Fold this protein.
Amino acid sequence: MGTPRTTSAATLLITLALAGSAARAEIKGDAIRIGVLTDMNGVFATAMGPGSVEAARMAAEEFGGKINGKPIEILQADHQNKPDLAASLARKWFSDGVQAIADGGSSGAALAVQELVRGNGKIFLVSGAGANQLTDEACAPTSVQWTQDAYSTATAVVSGIMQTSKEPWFFITGDYAFGHSIEATARDRIAALGGKVAGSVKAQLGTPDYSSFLLQAQSSGAKILAINVAGDNATAIKQAEEFGLADQGMKIVPMSFQNVDIEAVGLKATRGDLIVTSFFEDVSPAARKFSDAFHARRKAMPSQIQAGVYSAVRHYLQAVKDTDSDDSATVMAKMKATPVSDAYTPNGRIREDQRMVHDLYLVQVKTPEESRGPWDFVKLVATIPPDQAFRPLDRSKCRLVGK
């Protein structure tokens, strides 16, 4: 052990080194540029799209539109749910000085962007995409999955339904990454709880007519119909209602459903449904305040994805401000060291697999008689804490875990 004098000298040197490092930290770009890359006009546009752009702007406005003298710029682009276009747009943005991309849109597009950021070390704040791979085998050190994922959504929905029913299931599943993740996770949970799957069918994104799929479900002997077609949920559920499947004793279960879907379908067709969400406007006073402000601008309540974009962008900007840096590794380290507490969640944190974990909520859709007015759609059934909601780290394939 050194003498008191040498120890004091070492402490002084460390202090001076840290001070020098802090003095050298700076926002090197002429602006803090965040690109919202999403589906602006397609099937996911209502839950993401222009509302995600508005949510990012709201986060920027909380900082007065600038940090340490550098303006905050929110850009937007439509990847049309095409992975190659998403990667091309992201590559162009990064070459033009964009430091972070938010939302990501559909899972296929987000996975393509994540491959890019793994190589260039830029920040990717995923809110729209829910494929498990994003924080599993495809995880990246500067990408965070913020809002939903297939594991948490499917596990909670199946667990909630099977508390009261052990009848066989039938899946109508979107033929894309998120749909596949949801069904695979749900099948595992159904099997673990002693249930059975009578069958499944894959549907292309944008399918206008679900009648043949509904007939297959009807003839399968299943009593629980899992509608697993994010982006087309409203179409499929409306047609299931027209077929009278619920009146024939089949329980309709939307696997990934949001307030904007309920708005599109109506309470009559969705009343009593159990839904897992990470956000709804009455979960807290802060959530209500944000939601009302969003509604004043968009004439609609924010989806959980749009609220997640607000939270992710806000947390990123706070880390830029705290570090006075736009260096991705520096900013991400600060984001991971800082708890997430805002209108979206009071108790979030970024795990080592780059999953932002937070409470989830099992809610039930109100009947038309219970609803107090527009957008009053759900009531809380149970709060699911992070350690129960998300995939355990000991089951992760992310190469960052344990590093």
The chain is about 40% helix and 20% strand. The CA atoms of residues 311 and 344 lie 6 Å apart.
